[in-house]
Structures are given as C-alpha cells and as structure tokens.
UniProtKB/TrEMBL annotation:
Coiled-coil intervals: none
PROSITE patterns: B302_SPRY
Any Gene Ontology CC annotation: Set1C/COMPASS complex
Protein name, entry field: B30.2/SPRY domain-containing protein
Lineage: Eukaryota, Viridiplantae, Streptophyta, Embryophyta, Tracheophyta
Top-level division of the source organism's lineage: Eukaryota
Localization: Nucleus
UniProt-listed Pfam families: SPRY (PF00622)
Source species: Punica granatum
Amino acid sequence: MTICLSKVYKAEKVELSEDRMSASSTKGYRMVRATRGVCEGAWYFEIKVEKLGETGHTRLGWSMEKGDLQAPVGYDGNSFGYRDIDGSKVHKALREKYGEEGYKEGDVIGFYVNLPDGGSYAPKPPHAVLYKGQRYLCAQDPKDDPPRVVPGSEISFFKNGLCQGVAFKDLYGGRYYPAASMYTLPNQPSCAVSFNFGPEFEFFPESFDGRPVPRPMVEVAYHGFDGRFENGAVNEKQQ
C-alpha cells in the first residue's frame, strides 16, 4: 500500500474519503497525518483546498510523530503550519507573518522539506522486546538522546507553484509527516482538503532557487515502525 492518510493517526472527528486521499472536519481544529514520513532528503507534496465554505479555515503542513492530533498543525513544537487566513506560519502556537496574503478555496498549496543527512540526527527509534510471550516497546531515554538540529534543514510553502519563502529552518532531527487540520463553526458544512503525493503534481515549482529538487512523497518507502500497537501488532493496512 502506498502513502495515504492514516486511519490511526487522526482525530476521531476527522473523516477520510474511501481512497484516504481527502479529509474533512467540522467544529474545532483537528489533525490528520499521512501514513509515511521522512527523516532525510528533500521531499514535496501538495494539498488542494477543496471546500472552506463561509466559516471554514485550515492550517496545513508537517507534523512529527508526537504532534497533537486534537489540535491544529503548528499548535506545539512537533508540527509546522501554514495558515489560510493571512498566510502566516505557525509553530508552538505562535503565528508569525510569512506569505504576502493567505490562501483560499481552490488554491493548491505545495509543501517542501529538506533534511540533509537527517538520518544522522534523528532520535533512535524504539525497539521491541519480548517478555513472557508479549512484545513491548522500549523507547530511548530523552536524556540519553536529546533532540539535535539538522544543519541546513528547512521547510518552505508554495501557493499555486509560487514559493512563499523559507518558513522554518534548523529543524530537529526526526520523522516529518504530511498533515492537515480543518475548522468550521458548529452546525456548518465540513471543511475539506485533498492530498496529492505525486508523482504528477498540479503546480510543481519550476525552480527551487538552488536548493535540492525534491522527490515526491509517493516514493517514500514504508519504514516499518508505526508506534501504536493493536493486539500486539500493527501493519501498514491498519494505519
């Protein structure tokens, strides 16, 4: 199974399409992320804002494994968002001026991440051990494996193929997943977005200004660890 939106790593109120390439939600901000993430190299995907309606808003971007699913992208230190209202960037719930203007229904947003040699800076993954016939995950003590910045790393956002500038740089090593969060007022139609992981894009940028040309997220290999076990095991189909 190729990359799609996760049935496990999403807020309960987020609804997915049958092919798990589109997501919709109502009321407060909730997040969904993709089944595969990246920790090294340059990568790209797109999201089309399918429906905002009168009260809908989105925050779109990248989330690490510990990003809060019950909050918007950019709410904590584990996710990085791009806001529709004024084009601001959001991280740790702090909004900062970024793009010249926001984006709207029908716009296609491009997402670029570059993590040069990022695998050397990523935290050590939890490892499984068997004890009395049961499998348990043993995570590395954060004190023994503190976060490390990936030199030269960055996140940039594009609107309809035009770069809005570097939004975030000096990222911590780790795995970054495509993510979206949607919002509407109560009793309003759902806000909806659709993902495109490639290889064919609607607005693939003509230039990356000397930065590494990214690979499409559809080429990301399954990395074999999901982190949330159901009945002792999880496979990719359950995500």
